[in-house]
Amino acid sequence: MKKNFLTSPPMGWNSYDYYDTTVTEADVKANADYMAANLKEYGWEYVVVDIEWYSYNTGTRRNEHQYIPFEAVEMDEYSRLLPCPQRFPSAVNGAGFKPLADYVHNLGLKFGIHIMRGIPRIAAHTHTKIKGTDVPASEIAVFNNICWWNPDMYGVDPNKDASQIYYNSLLDLYAEWGVDFIKVDDICRMDAPTAEKEIIMLHNAINQCGRDIVLSLSPGPAKIDKAWCYERYANMWRITDDFWDNWPLLLNMFERCELWERHVSDGSYPDCDMLPIGKIGKGFFGEHDTNFTMDEQITMMSLWCMFKSPMMIGAELTKLDDETLSLLTNKDILGLLKLRNQARQLVRNKNEAVWMNTDDNYTYIELFNLSDDKKEVSFDLSELGIKAEKAEELWTKENVCINHNILISDIPAHGAAVYRI
What we know:
It is built from 11 helices and 21 strands. By secondary structure, the protein is of the alpha/beta class. The strands form 5 sheets. An 8-stranded parallel beta sheet has the order 10-9-8-7-3-2-1-13. It has a 6-stranded antiparallel beta sheet with strand order 14-15-16-21-18-19. Strands 4-6-5 form a 3-stranded antiparallel beta sheet. Helix 5 (161-177) packs across helix 6 (195-209). The longest helix is centred in the middle third of the chain and has 17 residues, at 161-177. The radius of gyration is 22 Å and the shape is elongated.
Protein backbone atom coordinates (compact mmCIF):
# COMPACT_ATOMS: atom_id res chain seq x y z
CA MET A 1 0.00 0.00 0.00
CA LYS A 2 1.15 3.53 -0.75
CA LYS A 3 1.34 5.08 2.69
CA ASN A 4 3.12 8.29 1.80
CA PHE A 5 -0.14 10.09 1.08
CA LEU A 6 -0.59 10.12 4.88
CA THR A 7 2.14 11.96 6.79
CA SER A 8 0.06 12.58 9.90
CA PRO A 9 -2.93 10.82 11.49
CA PRO A 10 -6.33 11.33 9.85
CA MET A 11 -8.53 13.93 11.56
CA GLY A 12 -12.28 14.15 11.12
CA TRP A 13 -15.79 13.41 12.32
CA ASN A 14 -17.58 10.05 12.55
CA SER A 15 -21.35 9.69 12.91
CA TYR A 16 -21.36 6.71 15.32
CA ASP A 17 -21.10 8.25 18.80
CA TYR A 18 -24.08 10.51 18.23
CA TYR A 19 -26.27 8.73 15.67
CA ASP A 20 -25.38 5.04 15.98
CA THR A 21 -27.15 3.47 12.95
CA THR A 22 -29.57 6.34 12.27
CA VAL A 23 -27.54 9.07 10.54
CA THR A 24 -29.16 10.62 7.46
CA GLU A 25 -27.84 12.49 4.44
CA ALA A 26 -29.10 15.76 5.92
CA ASP A 27 -27.23 15.04 9.17
CA VAL A 28 -24.00 14.30 7.31
CA LYS A 29 -24.28 17.49 5.26
CA ALA A 30 -24.97 19.60 8.35
CA ASN A 31 -21.88 18.24 10.11
CA ALA A 32 -19.78 18.64 6.97
CA ASP A 33 -20.93 22.26 6.64
CA TYR A 34 -19.93 22.92 10.25
CA MET A 35 -16.54 21.28 9.79
CA ALA A 36 -15.80 23.30 6.67
CA ALA A 37 -16.74 26.56 8.39
CA ASN A 38 -15.19 26.00 11.81
CA LEU A 39 -12.67 23.13 11.86
CA LYS A 40 -11.11 22.64 8.44
CA GLU A 41 -8.43 25.28 8.96
CA TYR A 42 -7.21 23.31 11.99
CA GLY A 43 -6.70 20.09 10.02
CA TRP A 44 -10.08 18.38 10.47
CA GLU A 45 -11.11 17.00 7.08
CA TYR A 46 -12.68 13.52 7.04
CA VAL A 47 -16.49 13.12 7.21
CA VAL A 48 -17.25 9.46 7.92
CA VAL A 49 -20.66 7.75 7.70
CA ASP A 50 -20.64 4.88 10.17
CA ILE A 51 -22.46 1.57 10.41
CA GLU A 52 -25.48 0.26 8.45
CA TRP A 53 -25.93 3.06 5.92
CA TYR A 54 -27.35 0.35 3.64
CA SER A 55 -30.09 -0.86 6.03
CA TYR A 56 -33.76 0.08 6.18
CA ASN A 57 -35.60 1.03 9.39
CA THR A 58 -32.45 1.44 11.46
CA GLY A 59 -33.04 2.53 15.04
CA THR A 60 -36.75 1.62 15.01
CA ARG A 61 -36.32 -1.32 17.41
CA ARG A 62 -33.44 0.06 19.48
CA ASN A 63 -34.79 -1.37 22.77
CA GLU A 64 -34.50 -4.85 21.22
CA HIS A 65 -31.66 -4.64 18.70
CA GLN A 66 -28.86 -2.30 17.82
CA TYR A 67 -28.73 -4.09 14.45
CA ILE A 68 -32.13 -5.45 13.40
CA PRO A 69 -31.65 -9.10 12.39
CA PHE A 70 -32.09 -9.71 8.66
CA GLU A 71 -33.77 -6.36 7.97
CA ALA A 72 -34.03 -5.23 4.35
CA VAL A 73 -30.89 -3.73 2.82
CA GLU A 74 -30.13 -1.90 -0.40
CA MET A 75 -27.85 -3.93 -2.69
CA ASP A 76 -26.88 -4.02 -6.37
CA GLU A 77 -26.89 -7.01 -8.71
CA TYR A 78 -23.22 -7.68 -7.92
CA SER A 79 -23.63 -8.37 -4.18
CA ARG A 80 -22.47 -4.87 -3.19
CA LEU A 81 -24.35 -2.88 -0.57
CA LEU A 82 -25.64 0.57 -1.54
CA PRO A 83 -26.82 3.52 0.56
CA CYS A 84 -30.41 3.16 1.74
CA PRO A 85 -32.47 5.82 -0.10
CA GLN A 86 -34.76 5.98 2.95
CA ARG A 87 -31.97 7.97 4.65
CA PHE A 88 -29.77 8.98 1.70
CA PRO A 89 -32.18 10.21 -0.97
CA SER A 90 -29.44 11.32 -3.39
CA ALA A 91 -28.40 7.64 -3.69
CA VAL A 92 -31.46 6.73 -5.80
CA ASN A 93 -31.14 5.21 -9.26
CA GLY A 94 -27.80 3.63 -8.51
CA ALA A 95 -26.00 6.90 -7.74
CA GLY A 96 -24.66 5.46 -4.51
CA PHE A 97 -22.63 7.79 -2.32
CA LYS A 98 -21.23 9.81 -5.23
CA PRO A 99 -23.59 12.80 -4.80
CA LEU A 100 -22.88 13.00 -1.06
CA ALA A 101 -19.13 12.53 -1.59
CA ASP A 102 -19.21 15.30 -4.20
CA TYR A 103 -20.96 17.58 -1.71
CA VAL A 104 -18.29 16.90 0.91
CA HIS A 105 -15.46 17.32 -1.59
CA ASN A 106 -16.90 20.65 -2.75
CA LEU A 107 -16.45 21.87 0.84
CA GLY A 108 -12.76 21.04 0.63
CA LEU A 109 -13.20 17.96 2.82
CA LYS A 110 -12.83 14.18 2.41
CA PHE A 111 -15.50 11.48 2.56
CA GLY A 112 -15.46 8.12 4.34
CA ILE A 113 -17.72 5.17 5.06
CA HIS A 114 -17.93 2.22 7.44
CA ILE A 115 -18.21 -1.32 6.11
CA MET A 116 -18.41 -4.76 7.66
CA ARG A 117 -15.91 -7.49 6.77
CA GLY A 118 -17.23 -9.99 4.25
CA ILE A 119 -20.17 -10.33 1.87
CA PRO A 120 -23.88 -9.67 2.62
CA ARG A 121 -25.71 -12.72 3.87
CA ILE A 122 -28.67 -11.83 1.66
CA ALA A 123 -26.36 -11.96 -1.36
CA ALA A 124 -25.36 -15.51 -0.46
CA HIS A 125 -28.96 -16.54 0.17
CA THR A 126 -30.19 -15.12 -3.14
CA HIS A 127 -27.13 -16.18 -5.16
CA THR A 128 -26.37 -12.79 -6.65
CA LYS A 129 -23.21 -12.73 -8.74
CA ILE A 130 -19.72 -11.33 -8.15
CA LYS A 131 -19.05 -8.61 -10.72
CA GLY A 132 -16.99 -9.80 -13.67
CA THR A 133 -17.67 -13.47 -12.96
CA ASP A 134 -20.41 -16.08 -13.10
CA VAL A 135 -19.65 -16.97 -9.49
CA PRO A 136 -22.57 -16.50 -7.05
CA ALA A 137 -21.99 -14.97 -3.64
CA SER A 138 -22.88 -18.30 -2.07
CA GLU A 139 -19.69 -19.82 -3.53
CA ILE A 140 -17.33 -17.52 -1.60
CA ALA A 141 -19.38 -17.01 1.59
CA VAL A 142 -18.26 -19.05 4.61
CA PHE A 143 -21.49 -19.76 6.47
CA ASN A 144 -19.98 -20.44 9.89
CA ASN A 145 -17.75 -17.35 9.62
CA ILE A 146 -19.95 -14.65 11.08
CA CYS A 147 -19.72 -11.58 13.27
CA TRP A 148 -21.08 -12.41 16.72
CA TRP A 149 -22.54 -8.92 17.26
CA ASN A 150 -23.83 -7.95 13.80
CA PRO A 151 -26.10 -10.09 11.57
CA ASP A 152 -25.34 -8.57 8.17
CA MET A 153 -22.39 -10.46 6.67
CA TYR A 154 -20.59 -13.74 6.09
CA GLY A 155 -16.82 -13.87 5.91
CA VAL A 156 -15.36 -14.89 2.55
CA ASP A 157 -13.13 -17.81 1.65
CA PRO A 158 -9.64 -16.39 1.08
CA ASN A 159 -8.64 -19.48 -0.89
CA LYS A 160 -11.04 -18.67 -3.73
CA ASP A 161 -10.03 -16.22 -6.44
CA ALA A 162 -13.55 -14.80 -6.58
CA SER A 163 -13.16 -13.51 -3.00
CA GLN A 164 -10.41 -11.11 -4.08
CA ILE A 165 -12.44 -10.22 -7.17
CA TYR A 166 -15.38 -9.37 -4.88
CA TYR A 167 -13.26 -7.09 -2.69
CA ASN A 168 -11.75 -5.50 -5.81
CA SER A 169 -15.26 -4.76 -7.09
CA LEU A 170 -16.14 -3.13 -3.76
CA LEU A 171 -13.17 -0.81 -3.81
CA ASP A 172 -13.69 -0.04 -7.50
CA LEU A 173 -17.21 1.06 -6.61
CA TYR A 174 -16.01 3.15 -3.68
CA ALA A 175 -13.39 4.78 -5.88
CA GLU A 176 -16.11 5.66 -8.41
CA TRP A 177 -18.12 7.23 -5.59
CA GLY A 178 -15.11 9.26 -4.44
CA VAL A 179 -14.59 7.54 -1.08
CA ASP A 180 -11.37 8.60 0.69
CA PHE A 181 -11.59 6.46 3.83
CA ILE A 182 -13.03 3.07 4.77
CA LYS A 183 -13.48 1.90 8.34
CA VAL A 184 -13.69 -1.89 8.16
CA ASP A 185 -15.36 -3.56 11.14
CA ASP A 186 -15.26 -7.09 12.61
CA ILE A 187 -11.67 -7.48 11.47
CA CYS A 188 -9.03 -5.76 13.62
CA ARG A 189 -8.96 -8.08 16.62
CA MET A 190 -9.17 -11.07 14.28
CA ASP A 191 -12.11 -12.82 15.94
CA ALA A 192 -12.69 -14.75 12.70
CA PRO A 193 -10.07 -17.19 11.36
CA THR A 194 -10.08 -15.45 7.95
CA ALA A 195 -9.73 -11.89 9.29
CA GLU A 196 -5.99 -11.55 8.72
CA LYS A 197 -6.29 -12.73 5.12
CA GLU A 198 -9.29 -10.45 4.56
CA ILE A 199 -7.15 -7.50 5.74
CA ILE A 200 -4.66 -8.42 3.03
CA MET A 201 -7.43 -8.74 0.42
CA LEU A 202 -8.72 -5.28 1.32
CA HIS A 203 -5.20 -3.92 1.07
CA ASN A 204 -4.82 -5.48 -2.39
CA ALA A 205 -8.21 -4.14 -3.46
CA ILE A 206 -7.26 -0.59 -2.49
CA ASN A 207 -3.96 -0.88 -4.34
CA GLN A 208 -5.71 -1.79 -7.58
CA CYS A 209 -8.61 0.71 -7.41
CA GLY A 210 -6.61 3.75 -8.53
CA ARG A 211 -7.52 6.00 -5.58
CA ASP A 212 -5.79 6.81 -2.29
CA ILE A 213 -8.14 5.38 0.34
CA VAL A 214 -7.34 5.19 4.04
CA LEU A 215 -7.79 1.67 5.46
CA SER A 216 -8.99 1.78 9.07
CA LEU A 217 -9.51 -1.46 11.03
CA SER A 218 -11.98 -2.01 13.90
CA PRO A 219 -12.78 -2.99 16.57
CA GLY A 220 -9.92 -3.55 18.99
CA PRO A 221 -8.02 -4.39 20.92
CA ALA A 222 -5.58 -5.13 18.12
CA LYS A 223 -3.15 -8.00 18.68
CA ILE A 224 0.36 -6.77 19.47
CA ASP A 225 1.85 -9.94 17.98
CA LYS A 226 0.20 -8.97 14.69
CA ALA A 227 1.66 -5.46 14.68
CA TRP A 228 3.63 -6.33 11.54
CA CYS A 229 0.37 -7.16 9.73
CA TYR A 230 -1.39 -3.93 10.66
CA GLU A 231 1.68 -1.84 9.83
CA ARG A 232 2.17 -3.46 6.45
CA TYR A 233 -1.42 -3.63 5.25
CA ALA A 234 -3.43 -0.88 7.01
CA ASN A 235 -3.22 2.82 7.82
CA MET A 236 -4.86 2.71 11.26
CA TRP A 237 -6.04 0.02 13.62
CA ARG A 238 -7.98 0.14 16.85
CA ILE A 239 -6.05 -0.64 20.02
CA THR A 240 -9.21 -0.66 22.15
CA ASP A 241 -12.81 -1.79 21.91
CA ASP A 242 -15.36 1.04 21.60
CA PHE A 243 -14.09 3.93 23.69
CA TRP A 244 -16.71 5.85 25.66
CA ASP A 245 -16.84 8.72 28.13
CA ASN A 246 -15.78 7.23 31.44
CA TRP A 247 -12.52 7.71 33.34
CA PRO A 248 -11.51 4.03 33.76
CA LEU A 249 -11.44 3.60 29.97
CA LEU A 250 -9.34 6.73 29.57
CA LEU A 251 -6.98 5.69 32.35
CA ASN A 252 -6.49 2.33 30.63
CA MET A 253 -5.40 4.08 27.43
CA PHE A 254 -2.07 5.00 29.03
CA GLU A 255 -1.24 1.31 29.24
CA ARG A 256 -2.43 0.67 25.68
CA CYS A 257 -0.48 3.59 24.26
CA GLU A 258 2.64 2.39 26.06
CA LEU A 259 2.20 -1.01 24.40
CA TRP A 260 1.87 0.48 20.90
CA GLU A 261 4.10 3.59 21.01
CA ARG A 262 6.89 2.00 18.94
CA HIS A 263 4.50 1.10 16.12
CA VAL A 264 3.59 4.66 15.10
CA SER A 265 5.03 5.76 11.76
CA ASP A 266 4.02 7.73 8.67
CA GLY A 267 0.91 6.15 7.21
CA SER A 268 0.57 3.66 10.11
CA TYR A 269 -1.28 4.74 13.23
CA PRO A 270 -2.50 2.72 16.22
CA ASP A 271 -5.98 4.12 16.85
CA CYS A 272 -7.26 5.15 20.30
CA ASP A 273 -10.81 5.45 18.87
CA MET A 274 -13.16 8.40 18.68
CA LEU A 275 -13.32 11.45 20.92
CA PRO A 276 -16.60 11.15 22.89
CA ILE A 277 -16.91 14.85 23.65
CA GLY A 278 -19.71 17.39 23.33
CA LYS A 279 -23.18 15.97 22.83
CA ILE A 280 -23.27 12.24 22.07
CA GLY A 281 -25.61 9.24 22.32
CA LYS A 282 -28.78 10.35 20.56
CA GLY A 283 -29.04 7.18 18.46
CA PHE A 284 -28.38 4.97 21.45
CA PHE A 285 -30.62 5.82 24.41
CA GLY A 286 -30.73 9.60 24.41
CA GLU A 287 -28.54 12.59 23.79
CA HIS A 288 -26.28 13.59 26.65
CA ASP A 289 -23.29 15.79 27.31
CA THR A 290 -20.06 13.85 27.64
CA ASN A 291 -19.45 12.44 31.09
CA PHE A 292 -15.82 13.51 30.90
CA THR A 293 -14.88 16.54 32.96
CA MET A 294 -13.05 19.31 31.12
CA ASP A 295 -9.80 18.19 32.78
CA GLU A 296 -10.38 14.63 31.54
CA GLN A 297 -11.04 15.95 28.03
CA ILE A 298 -7.75 17.87 28.18
CA THR A 299 -6.03 14.64 29.23
CA MET A 300 -7.63 12.75 26.34
CA MET A 301 -6.75 15.36 23.74
CA SER A 302 -3.19 15.66 25.08
CA LEU A 303 -2.56 11.90 25.06
CA TRP A 304 -4.18 11.26 21.66
CA CYS A 305 -2.17 14.08 20.04
CA MET A 306 1.16 13.20 21.67
CA PHE A 307 0.72 9.50 20.82
CA LYS A 308 -0.34 10.53 17.28
CA SER A 309 -3.59 8.63 17.28
CA PRO A 310 -6.09 9.26 14.49
CA MET A 311 -8.55 11.93 15.67
CA MET A 312 -12.24 11.35 15.01
CA ILE A 313 -14.78 13.58 16.75
CA GLY A 314 -17.84 11.71 18.02
CA ALA A 315 -19.96 14.75 18.90
CA GLU A 316 -22.79 16.30 16.93
CA LEU A 317 -20.75 19.17 15.51
CA THR A 318 -23.64 21.57 15.08
CA LYS A 319 -24.18 21.51 18.87
CA LEU A 320 -20.58 22.14 19.97
CA ASP A 321 -20.25 24.71 22.74
CA ASP A 322 -17.41 27.22 22.78
CA GLU A 323 -15.46 25.37 25.46
CA THR A 324 -15.51 22.10 23.51
CA LEU A 325 -14.69 23.90 20.29
CA SER A 326 -11.63 25.40 21.99
CA LEU A 327 -10.32 21.87 22.65
CA LEU A 328 -10.53 21.05 18.95
CA THR A 329 -8.94 24.25 17.67
CA ASN A 330 -5.78 24.53 19.77
CA LYS A 331 -3.17 24.65 17.01
CA ASP A 332 -0.26 24.01 19.38
CA ILE A 333 -1.81 20.83 20.78
CA LEU A 334 -2.92 19.58 17.36
CA GLY A 335 0.57 20.34 16.08
CA LEU A 336 1.86 17.42 18.14
CA LEU A 337 0.21 15.13 15.57
CA LYS A 338 2.66 16.33 12.94
CA LEU A 339 5.90 15.78 14.87
CA ARG A 340 8.21 13.54 12.88
CA ASN A 341 9.61 11.55 15.81
CA GLN A 342 7.95 8.81 17.84
CA ALA A 343 6.57 9.92 21.18
CA ARG A 344 7.69 8.10 24.34
CA GLN A 345 6.10 7.45 27.69
CA LEU A 346 8.74 8.22 30.31
CA VAL A 347 6.77 7.55 33.50
CA ARG A 348 3.60 5.67 34.36
CA ASN A 349 2.36 4.66 37.79
CA LYS A 350 -1.00 4.74 39.52
CA ASN A 351 -0.76 8.48 40.19
CA GLU A 352 0.97 10.06 37.22
CA ALA A 353 2.35 9.69 33.72
CA VAL A 354 4.85 11.63 31.64
CA TRP A 355 5.12 11.65 27.84
CA MET A 356 7.56 13.44 25.54
CA ASN A 357 8.43 14.11 21.93
CA THR A 358 10.76 16.46 20.07
CA ASP A 359 11.23 18.35 16.84
CA ASP A 360 14.22 20.28 15.54
CA ASN A 361 13.62 23.20 17.87
CA TYR A 362 11.67 22.07 20.91
CA THR A 363 11.05 19.33 23.42
CA TYR A 364 7.42 18.69 24.35
CA ILE A 365 6.63 17.28 27.79
CA GLU A 366 3.18 16.20 28.98
CA LEU A 367 2.52 15.75 32.70
CA PHE A 368 -0.60 13.78 33.66
CA ASN A 369 -2.26 13.54 37.05
CA LEU A 370 -3.92 10.11 37.06
CA SER A 371 -5.04 10.36 40.69
CA ASP A 372 -8.46 11.35 42.01
CA ASP A 373 -7.12 14.46 43.78
CA LYS A 374 -5.28 17.59 42.74
CA LYS A 375 -1.54 16.96 42.99
CA GLU A 376 1.88 18.19 41.99
CA VAL A 377 3.49 16.31 39.10
CA SER A 378 7.17 16.88 38.32
CA PHE A 379 9.89 15.66 35.98
CA ASP A 380 13.66 16.18 36.09
CA LEU A 381 14.67 17.42 32.65
CA SER A 382 18.23 16.30 33.33
CA GLU A 383 17.08 12.75 32.55
CA LEU A 384 16.70 13.90 28.93
CA GLY A 385 19.92 15.88 28.91
CA ILE A 386 17.97 19.13 28.79
CA LYS A 387 18.77 22.34 30.64
CA ALA A 388 15.97 24.89 30.69
CA GLU A 389 14.82 27.88 32.70
CA LYS A 390 11.38 28.41 31.20
CA ALA A 391 8.63 26.64 29.29
CA GLU A 392 5.29 27.47 27.68
CA GLU A 393 2.16 25.56 28.72
CA LEU A 394 0.20 24.93 25.52
CA TRP A 395 -3.34 24.81 26.94
CA THR A 396 -3.14 28.00 29.00
CA LYS A 397 -0.43 29.73 26.89
CA GLU A 398 1.32 30.66 30.16
CA ASN A 399 5.10 30.92 30.42
CA VAL A 400 6.46 29.21 33.52
CA CYS A 401 9.85 29.29 35.22
CA ILE A 402 11.81 26.08 35.71
CA ASN A 403 13.87 25.92 38.89
CA HIS A 404 16.82 23.52 39.29
CA ASN A 405 15.86 21.92 35.95
CA ILE A 406 12.72 20.37 37.50
CA LEU A 407 9.50 20.87 35.53
CA ILE A 408 6.69 21.07 38.12
CA SER A 409 2.95 21.57 37.70
CA ASP A 410 0.01 21.59 40.09
CA ILE A 411 -2.57 19.59 38.12
CA PRO A 412 -6.27 18.94 38.85
CA ALA A 413 -7.50 15.39 39.30
CA HIS A 414 -7.42 13.47 36.00
CA GLY A 415 -5.89 16.52 34.32
CA ALA A 416 -2.82 17.32 32.23
CA ALA A 417 -0.33 20.03 31.40
CA VAL A 418 1.60 20.24 28.11
CA TYR A 419 4.89 22.13 27.90
CA ARG A 420 7.01 23.29 25.01
CA ILE A 421 10.66 23.78 25.97
